User: What shape does this take?
Amino acid sequence: MSFPTISLTANTAMKIHLSLLCLLILAIPLSAGTLVDSLLSGYGEIQSLSCEVRRDSESGDNKVRTLSRVYFQKPDRLHVESVAPLSRRIVADGTNFFSYVAGDPKGFSRPVARLERDMLISLRKVPATAMDHLLRLEGAPETNLPPTAGFPVRRGYDTGKMTAVLSLDTSNRLACIEFFADREMTQKTARTEYSHFSEALPGVWLSRLHKTVVWMGGGESRETSRFDNLSVNKPIAPNLFNASLFFQKVDFVANIEQMYE
Assistant: This one.
């Protein structure tokens, strides 16, 4: 049996080629930038979150447990009530930031627009995420790294002062961040492991257990943070962000050095 011969003109062949190319391009996922950008974009879908936090810190013979209740809401609204080891309260109303430790002569307050970078990151990071690290890696050049056991996706970031490595697990969740003092990644300074995941939104994972180890000055310190009773994108009482309801008869200063003068 013979099959009919199909003859294509050059113009027709070109149209078919372009059509196939378009289909191929549409089938390839578009890049959202670096892995850091992608993770931050996902966390950006979280508008509010409340939870309970238990943080255990250990350095040498010193052990401290901090218990807190956290209410987070965009933009720049935060209420943190810590009851141990010290009674401390932080309130940010979207414009101004307030912090006071019970028994101190004065509290600290400053407009959000004038907060230092570290304090601003603490204000804007979503609880139970790695945003406290990711926000510091924004804009850093990214390098693909070879996979390792359990971590099929790994990315390196050079900030000029240190190198960070982000590792995703087989479920595409951020499971580990490591920090190194050198670009060759031979001098590890810190490592945080994330586990006990909860999918807050489709593809957006919260980690209810963070385990951090820091190596500095020949010593080792550890911190374990547990996040419980997570509530995402649910209404939060507006009065929790009204500082005047919680800081009666407290004098505030704009510089921490002035608190104990």
In short: Confidence is low (pLDDT under 50) at residues 1-31. The CA atoms of residues 42 and 204 lie 6 Å apart. The first strand starts at residue 48 and ends at 59. The chain has four helices and 14 strands.
